[in-house]
Amino acid sequence: MYLTVLGINHRTAPVEVRGQVAFPPEQLARALAELTALDGIHEAAIVSTCNRTEVYCSRDNTSDDIITDWLCRFHQLESESLLPHLYNYQQADAVRHVLRVAAGLDSMILGEPQILGQMKEAYQHSLQANSIDTLVNRLFQHTFSVAKQVRTDTAIGASPVSVAFAAVSLARQIFGKLEDQTALLIGAGETIELTARHLHDQGIGKIIVANRTVSRAHDLAAQFNGYGIGLDEISTHLEEADIVISSTGSTEPLISRKQMQAALKKRKHRPVFMVDIAVPQDIAADVAELDDVYLYTVDDLQQVIDENLRSREEAALQAEEIIDDQVERFMAWVQSLDAVPTVRAYREYAESLGEAAIEKAGRQLENGTPPQEVIETLTRNLVRKLSHNPSVNLRNAAAEGETGLLEAVRKLFQLNTRDK
Q: Once rounded to an integer, what is the mean pLDDT over residues 55-74?
């Protein structure tokens, strides 16, 4: 059987095309059933995220076009519109690709951990659909193990490389645990939403979201057990905030030095960590001059991110070495599967000879033949029958100059033929 990965991702296709071949969770069971019903396809799994859709299959020696044609039919697409964006990996290349994806080496953000969770979800869907067996099942198990090794043995995920993650990481450096802190997030766009998610994951005590559209602020804050306010209410709540992170499209500062001085007085000069991601700035630049204020701009964070990216790139080289080794190990296991039918056939042949010999020995004992004589006869006959066909074929191989077969038998049975 052959391992195949057919896919499309953020490197090969724009988001519009990726959206056309995405698989919502409710479609996966039908898709997997259709895939495994195709001629020559034995197993199938589908990984589908906003950045990639990949089909993992084990198949006979059939054309890969059968999978491509199915993908186009399922999504009602013309093959000409999809083919330029597809990639196709086989055997060892397929294994290497899957391991790199799970380790975050093929992600838009190098080393991001979310894809591993998404692959585990894909694996569960495949188990529920009964669409995977020995080969693809083992591939997923091996992949999860290697991804864990990469995370443990390298620093691929140790340093934040997104603005939101970097901001939260700096907050943790200043406050340590965040359970007793309150965060005021200004804005309700993608960066602020991601920041809120990271803060929530780190156990932040309370989240307040301020936005021009108050309903949007309420909706976002409610996801994290917080509450929303309007931009005109920032001054009222500023004294509560241990952490302030702002990212809006405002053309004027939303927090002035005077507002911050008043808040610090009410806070009795407890420190405030502030991150201004906006351009132009939401927080007046002279706020940074105040005691007890730690103000970072997007440029400050970018320096942190650039340094961390370099660290991840170095870790990625180590990860590639781990993956190369693990690809070899997995392919060695795959190649060992080729021996399974032969081993099974040889065992069945030997067992059939043994059963016939035992039956014959039983009849001899019933007829009164002495047990010692029965044992000796059984042993001689069994040895003769087991060695007859190999002996004939080895003589023929020697006569025809097939020395490779002779050497293979010496290795197989660990025979020493010197001086004999």
A: 89
- Residues with catalytic roles: 50
CATH 3.40.50.720 fits 163-305, yes or no: yes
What per-residue confidence (pLDDT) applies to 340? 63
Say if CB 5 and CB 119 are below 8 A apart.
no
Q: Where are the domains of the chain?
A: 2-153, 163-305, 344-413
Query: Is the model's pLDDT at 278 over the cut of 90?
Result: no
Q: Which two tokens stand for residue 250?
A: 């405002």
Q: How far apart are CA 307 and CA 297, in angstroms?
A: 16
At 322, list the tokens.
């781990």
What CATH class has 2-153? alpha beta
Residue 378 neighbours by CB under 8 Å, 6+ apart: 357, 358, 360, 361
Element (H, E) at 263: helix 257-266
pTM, to two decimals: 0.63
- CA-to-CA separations, 238 to 217, 271, 273, 289, in angstroms, rounded: 16, 12, 12, 17
Q: H-helix or E-strand containing 230?
A: strand 227-230
- pLDDT digits 0-9 by tens, 31-57: 999 999 999 999 999 999 888 999 999
Angle between helices 214-222 and 190-201 (to 10 degrees): 30
DSSP structure string for 126-165 = HHHHT---HHHHHHHHHHHHHHHHHHHHS-TTTS--SHHH
Q: Among the listed ranges 87-101, 234-248, 356-370, which one has the minimum average pLDDT value?
A: 356-370
β-pairing verdict for 52-59 and 182-186? unpaired
- Start-end of H helices in 276-339: 298-336
